[in-house]
Amino acid sequence: MIRLFQFPPAFGLPNASGFCLKLETWLRMAGLPYQNVYTMNLARAPKGKLPHIDDDGTPVADSALIIDHLTRRYGVTLDSHLNDGQRALALMARRTLEEHLYWCVVYFRWVDERYWPATREAVFSPLGAPACWIVPPLARRGMVGQVRSAGIGRHTPDDITAMARDDLAAIEAVLGDKPFMLGEPTSLDASAYGMLANIILVDVDLPIRRAALEFPRLVAYCERMRQVYW
User: Fold this and answer.
1) Residues 12, 221, 167, 208: is their CA dihedral positive or negative?
2) Contact between 64 and 102 (Cβ < 8 Å)
3) Taking the domains of the chain in order of start, what are their residue ranges?
4) Separation in Å, CA 5 to CA 39, 132, 192, 199, 226
5) Least C-beta-crowded within 10 Å: which of 20, 47, 75, 121?
6) At residue 117, what are phi and psi to the nearest 5 degrees?
7) Predicted structure pTM score
């Protein structure tokens, strides 16, 4: 049995981490049975981050490496029909989503003073007292440092929103009028849904969400993925 270690649900989503939601969506797309283990304890995570899995005693961390491992072990064929050009496009789109757009979301949730209270409430209120008072400022300090190290945290909110809008435009161009990113469902859709749902389907009025709502095909795509796989 695959045991999936991830954060508890938050913001009305199965997971407020784009990477956790990506991996659980992929498991559903691949038809692999799994058991959720909800945790906030990063100290026990193999690489100090979530998600990670225990696959019948084999620990694997990092969503991309987990997908590679499970694809090989269980013969998952989600991406088997892709040609080299499609695989290259999927990789570049995934990098846009996970290595840039992701940090834009993190900035507004964790750094921007206007929206931090909503994050604190959604993520940490289930901890109960006194952890819900002690843990949030410590976690936030670490996230603020990561956002600044990633580079996004050095820009203004308006600049970050403009950058995110460019990312969203690029992803919508990849999607076009297709039902899924590359026509048929692939691993890229798990990544896209994990990241986009955490913008579009979260009812917090972030500037980045307002930008995303300018792209109706992405909004429809998120709803379609939710209906099909959730």
Assistant:
1) negative
2) no
3) 2-74, 84-229
4) 7, 21, 20, 22, 21
5) 75
6) -55, -40
7) 0.96
Q: Which fold has domain 84-229?
A: Glutathione S-transferase Yfyf (Class Pi); Chain A, domain 2 (1.20.1050)
Strand pairing category for 2-6 and 34-38 = parallel
The DSSP letter of residue 163 is H
C-alpha–C-alpha distance, residues 166 and 148, integer Å: 20
Phi, psi angles (nearest 5°) of residue 65: -70, -35
Could you name the CATH architecture of 2-74?
3-Layer(aba) Sandwich (3.40)
Secondary structure (DSSP) of 73-114? HHT--TTTT--HHHHHHHHHHHHHIIIIIHHHHHIIIII-TT
Q: Kindly report, residue by residue over 141-182, the tens digit of the pLDDT.
A: 999 999 999 999 999 999 999 999 999 999 999 999 999 999
Place of tokens 């949030």: 136
